[in-house]
Amino acid sequence: MRPMTDDEARAFLTVGTRTGKLAVVRADGRPHVSPIWFVLDGGDLVFTTWKDSVKGRSLRRDPRVALTVDDEEPPFAFVMVEGEVTLSEDPDALLRWATTIGGRYMGADRAERYGHRNAVPGELLVRLVPSKIIGRAGIAE
User: Fold this and answer.
1) Which domains does the chain have, with CATH numbers?
2) How far apart are CA 123 and CA 129, in angstroms?
3) Phi and psi, residue 89, nearest 5°
4) What residues form DSSP beta bridges with 34?
């Protein structure tokens, strides 16, 4: 196993359609982990969520999060990100990023449809600004 550089970790986060596993803390202190689709914008991770979901309510109350993305194929690798999020309901930004995310996970031919489906009132645009990134590669080597 070897540590990834920051550049390697950021590159890892952009490969294919790996999902992130986002951890938040509920109001009563219980953890909540959910899969997310995301893209990178510079050093930030960008995703969307419904404002009244467990994740959305938790993010509005406490912006601190942790996220893990892993490669489930040998020799295995992962990146963990800790940081805080900012939230926006700006419809133009929401449409732009929901479309970009749709392109990554659903393909360019379905990106616009995905963007319009998710850029609706009640959806939040979430920007995770990392404060710590840890990556490990070659775990099974």
Assistant:
1) 2-89+122-135 (2.30.110.10)
2) 19
3) -120, 15
4) 22
